[in-house]
Every structure is written in structure tokens, then in C-alpha cells.
Design goal:
The complex is a heterodimer of chains A (257) and B (422). With 257 residues, chain A is mainly alpha-helical. Chain A contains 8 helices and 4 strands. In chain A, the strands form 2 sheets. Chain A has a two-stranded antiparallel sheet with strand order 1-2. Chain A has a two-stranded antiparallel sheet with strand order 3-4. In chain A, helix 2 crosses helix 7 and helix 6 packs antiparallel against helix 7. In chain B, 62% of the residues lie in helices and 3% in strands. The longest helix of chain B is centred in the middle third of the chain and has 32 residues. Classes of the chains: A mainly alpha (257), B mainly alpha (422). Chain A: This is Cytochrome c1. Chain A: One of its GO terms (molecular function) is electron transfer activity.
Amino acid sequence: MRKFALTAIAAAFALTAFANTSSKAAEGVVPPAMEWSWQGLFGTYDRAQLQRGFQVFKTVCATCHSMRYLAFRNLEGIGFNEDQIKAIAAEYEVQDGPNDDGEMFTRTAKPSDHFPHPFANDKAAAAANGGATPPDLSLMAKARPHGPDYIHALLTGYEEEAPAGVEMADGKYYNHYFPSHQISMPPPLYGNDVEYTDGTEATVDQEVLDVTAFLNWIAEPELEARKAMGMKVLLFLIVLTAMLYAVKRKIWAKIEH
Amino acid sequence: MSAPVWNNKVVKWVDDRLPVFSMLHHSAYEYPTPKNLSYMWNFGSLAGLVLVTMILTGIFLVMNYTPHADMAFDSVERIMRDVNYGWLIRYLHMNGASMFFIAVYIHIFRGLYYGSYKAPREVLWWIGILILLAMMATAFMGYVLPWGQMSFWGATVITNLFSAFPVIGDPLVTWLWGGFSVGNPTLNRFFSLHYLLPFVILGLVVLHVWALHTVRSNNPTGVEIKTPQDSIPFHPYYTIKDLFGMGVFLIIYLYFVFFAPNFFGEPDNYIMANPLSTPAHIVPEWYFLPFYAILRSIDFEFLGMPAKLLGVLAMFAAIIVLFVIPWLDTSKVRSSRFRPVYKWFFVVLIIDCFVLGYCGAKAPSDPFMGLHGLQVITVGQLATLYYFLHFLVVMPVVGKMERPKPLPASISESVLKGGANA
């Protein structure tokens, strides 16, 4: 048993070190680690923060970025009720069709519709943004090393002047945390870009924290259900395994081994 | 070991016509097992547990997955978001792959340390290596299915390796792809094979267990079962021990599933595959990193063969060499517990494999462990050299020169001396 535990600990340790080196193979500047409400074994999202983040997203980010995996009905997950979701959807128009005359038409969005894309296609998006397509944001918090920490660092990592000796390409902005440091996205948030419905003061820092939380939620909407189930499963397994160990001791008691 | 007498009439009726109950009784109940097996002998049953988990979760994933280059990524996200407990099934499957390799690698190194490949267990060992090869093919093709950036570019890099073979190389790669680059036909065939190969693995596992039950389990002393006192029936002793091991294993496995589901993954695979944009670093999954390091460590020509071909040959040789170690190992003693010199070479081999893994994860020109003036490629080359030296030189030479410690007369004697925890 002692040997087993030692082996297990050694294996876990080696693996952790190993997997860490591999996942950090492709990164630039390491973003500062932030405290997020959803971290840890008992982490949960803060609904008010997610709603504020959604407000920042739809007012600022959504003018250029798509969110292909967000349907209006999903907003239930950040605490909106059915009527609120209907009202939010009704602010948007989506294309539907063809109708019986074979024509495409636009209509008011329903909760089952997906959040409309700001551009007709990637080419149109690139043409409107100096040649760079704004990436879809649905999975951003999972698709970059350090996920939310990176998003937070990127949004606050703009510098007005590039360091001496750095030749900036046309239409690029210097960002300390972007891998090449030259990013096509202009600084998106200046403070008071939205008027928060819950009265929170819309400082840049507040907006960045809120929108990062929202982006993490849309990347991992299952997180709360996952952690809650995980707690129950692990507790069950720990008790079961302890009992199995007791039975094993009992059965083996008669055996010289 | 007499045939059991069945009291239940239905059981007896079936058993007289097809002896399934007798067979189960024979192989899962009375199978005589050495009484001194350590917890290192738990990993075979753990690998079996993961195999079943992978097949079951895989079957449910397929019900919701679309193997098309334009829809695969979206269908995986649909599983994560809209399918009931889809996230659970997918995370079980994703992390199960890593857990499968952890269990199997420990299982293999246990076999190496205790000489489980030596006569009469050579065929058992061979089937094990075939299982490893089938697992690697399955894992590689499975990783392509979500059609993320790493899926696409990993598939491109690995399939391109076959172009290293002279004359047939390029046509072979085109044939593998079903086109002139990795694309929808590639995804379709990989999906088909990814569904087929697990059942091949299952068949090989049946053969593996059959061979095991013919030659019997090895044990930490490496001394065969000689008298009935040396063994105990498999049930209840090892069924309960395996169950306990499964409990511990599941705690670790499910911790990752529920609390760090993307720990073993690459963030880039949450970006949809884009043939026009190559990721900065293409890294395979962690369980391939040592082999990837061996592949990349050959950066020179030799005997007119280009470096790429040599690298590919070296990578395959790293596994092929395992087939012949029953004859490369010249020691008369199975267990390294009684091999004072070889034991240390074994420790070096384990460290070597971790070093190879580290090198596989880094760019060749990176400094090794942050040491300036020492490049990853150089360390990778030395580690590759030791890997092959270990099997081709150390095993035959040390086996002949080393003076092993005296072996216990039997398993029972070793147990009575308290040898089980030595």
C-alpha cells in the first residue's frame, strides 16, 4: 500500500510536470494569473457579472466579432428569464427563408435563433477590418493558453507607444500580451462604453473583468453543472474506495503475502 | 482444478452445451495467481477498464458526431452544449485516452522491470506490443476527428512522414489522404478506422488474456509458481484487489474529467481547422512526445538516406525493438529485484523516456530546461542514443556480466521472509 501510494504520487507528479511543459510549448508573454469566481473545486459564475459582460459583448465586441455557439435561449444560463430572453432576441433581426415564394426574408429573432453575425462572411469581415478577420469569440477562453487570464491581459495590455526599435506595421496596435505584439484590433474599451443596467460603474477594468467572465461562460457553459456533479462523484468514489480497501484487507487477512 | 459441478439446472443445461460458466469459473475464479503480486500488477485490469469506457463513450459520441470537414467541429460543440450530458461523455472519452496510455505505459514498464517478456511469456509480450501499436493508431486518428487546428496539422505532419519512403512515398501519402492534402476524405476514413480499431484492440486483449492464462502471471520475484502454496485463486483475492485499484484510478481519472478536463489538451484544438493558417508550434498529444523526439532527433544523412527517412525509421524502430528484447536480454534472472546492476540502468531508461518526452514538447532550438548553450535537439539526440543503447547493448551485455543476487527457492519462501515489500 505504501509503495502503491508512492508510485501513484510519483506518477502524478511526473505527469503534471510533463503535461505542463507540453501545454506551454507555444506561448509568448505569460499573462498575470487573476482570481476568477469559477476557479477551484467549488467555483461558480457570478450571474450579475455575466449579465454585465453580455452587455459589454453585445454593445462593443459584437460590432466586429461573431459568437456562433450563442443562441438567445442559452442566456437562461446567465440568469435571464424567458420574457427577458424574448425581449433581448427581439432587438435583433435574422435572415430566414426561403418562404413559399422562394424569397429569403428578415424577421425578428426568436429565443431559438443564434446570435447574428456582424458580417455576411469572413471575407466581408476582413474587408471591413483592415484585412484581419475578427475571430469568433465562443471558444476564446479555451482556445488560448491561460484562457481567461490571457483575454484579461490582452484587453488591458495595449501600449500607446511601441518600445523603441519596434517597427509597427500599418494599422497595427502594440499589445504587450499578443504573441507578435502587433494586433489588428484597436483598443476596444475605454471606460463608460456601456451604461450598466445594475448601476455598476463602467470603468475599463470593470468592463474587462465582466466581459472576460462572459467569454469564459460561453466557452464553458457546463462548468457549474460539471463541478457540482464532480463533487458528488468524487465523494461517492472516495467512500466506495475506502470500503473496497477495508474489504480487501479483510479478505487478504488470512493470506501470507 | 476439477470441473465445477453446477447445481442450478439452467446453468448446467447451458454449460453442457456451451461451457461458458465452466470457462468463467476456470479463468476468473480459480485461475491460480501468485500470492505476492504487488500493486504494479493492477494496471492490466485498469487498462481493460479504460478500454471498455472508451468503447462505450465512443459509441454514444458517434450518435451525435458528424464526420464531415465542414461540420465536425460544430457537431463536437453541439455535443458539448446541447446534447444531454454530452460534455460528460466527451470529457470522459478525451481524458480516457490519456488515462489509457498512463495505465498501459506503467503496465509496460512493470513488465520490463520484472522481466515479464522472458520465456515462456514472449507471445504474451508480443500481443501487448501489438495492442500498443493499435492504441497509438486509434489515438492518433481519434485526435483528428474534432477537426481543430491541432487535429488538422497533427494529421498533416504525421501522414507526411510516409513521404520519406523512397519511390512509393508520395503516392502512398496521396493514397492515405484520399486527395492531395488532408481533407474531408481523410477525416472520413480516419473516422471509419477509429471506430474499427478499438474492436481489433478488444480482440487482441482476448488473445493477451488467453496467453496470460496459459503461461500464468509473472510476479515480483520472477520465480514461477512451483507448489500450490505459491498461488491463490483469482477470486476473491485479486478481484477485490483490482476493484480497489479501480476505485483509486477512477478518483484520479474523474478528477480530471470534472475539474481539469482540458489539462491534457492543446488550446489550439478549440480553433476550427484552417488549412491556410499553420499554428506556431505543432505538438502531438503527450503520449506521443517521446516518439516525436526520436523522430526529430535525426537531423543528419547517413548511408545516403535522408534525415527524414532515418527519423521515421528510428521512430518505428523504437517500438519494433521491443519485439526482440526476449532475446536481447541475456540474464537468466527475470526480476530486476535480483539484478543489482541492471536495476540502475532501468532507472536511467525511465528518466530517459521522460527526457525524450520533454524534448518532444519543445522546439528543437529551445534551450534545454532553460540552460543556455544546451539545445533541446542535442539532448534529444543523446536520449535517443541511450534509448537504443539500453535495449541493444545494455540488455545483452549487463545480462552476461552481472552477478545476480540469490533467488528465493519459491514464492512462498520469499513471502515468509517478508520479501513482498523488499
